Amino acid sequence: MNIWLAIGATALGCYAVKLAGLLVPAGLLERPLVRRFAALLPVALLAALTAQQTFADGHALVLDARAAGLAAAVVALMLRAPFLLVVAAAVVVTAGVRALGG
Amino acid sequence: MAEQTALTDIRADGGGRPDAAVVRDALGVGVAVGLSGFAFGVTSAGSGLSVWQTCALSLLVFTGASQFALVGALAAGGNPLTAAAGAFFLGVRNAFYGLRLSQSLALPRAVRPFAAQWVIDETAAVSLAQPGRRAARIGFGVTGLSLYVLWNLTTLCGALGAEAIGDTDAWGLDAAGPAVFLALLAPMLKTTAERAVAGLAVLLGLGLLPVLPAGVPVLTAALAAPVVLYLDGRRRGRGAAGRVDTGEEER
Asked: A45 and B223: CB-CB below 8 Å?
């Protein structure tokens, strides 16, 4: 039930901001400071999420096969690989390292 | 004959692009990104959500990063509302896409509540790249429809597949979430300020992980944005005091 609560809250919140953008008068959100903040907020969240989901196990920091997978994703990104290939590289390398006992 | 059609198309929009070219671009994005719903379905089911819950997220939330963030936080044992808050903050950027799109698409008010669900990174990227209103509307509609349909179908397949194979970690599928975040993040790291925000957020997110409840460190890491914005503003302020002429020229 708790999970449904989270799903409901996320769905409502995310829909509300999408709709707000289409309905709100332009001047309100067009202030430079607000715009810069909105551009930097996802950067902070995505960076923190990437790091956590790679190096965290519960409340402990760990270095395991996921780090190798993420490194593969970095390489794929630097080679300008398409989105799906970046994700696939991370998955395949992580699985490979685990299979080798990493 | 084909040439003639192309010419008519161009004229129909006073300098716009041929419809076929817009549709091709839109489908390219819609299909490529739509297929990655598979990774979401697998990740979500692997995080312990049911197939119904997974599909509800793709149907109702429909903004990839928020969906991954939510299931990641729930899997880490986060409080449901903390998890939802993180997902919500990631969705806030869509408001700014909507703002831009409402100008370029000029949709009738009655249509906006329906179009809103499709206001995401990809539809904004495709439609805002178009030269005219007609092309922008086609780009938005085709990207939105193809991505929504495919994303939901592949989410279902991924969720069913994850249930079938059991231990998704053994297949390395727990690396899909962070790889998706990284792929979304990489093109945003253009300026020093953006890199500083990312670096500080990583430090906060990992540093606070052992001491704060699950899900809270990510929300705290969001503070990296206002902190860097403030420091950047002070630096600029000082620079402007020294050289008055370059003062306000941000945009």
From this structure: no
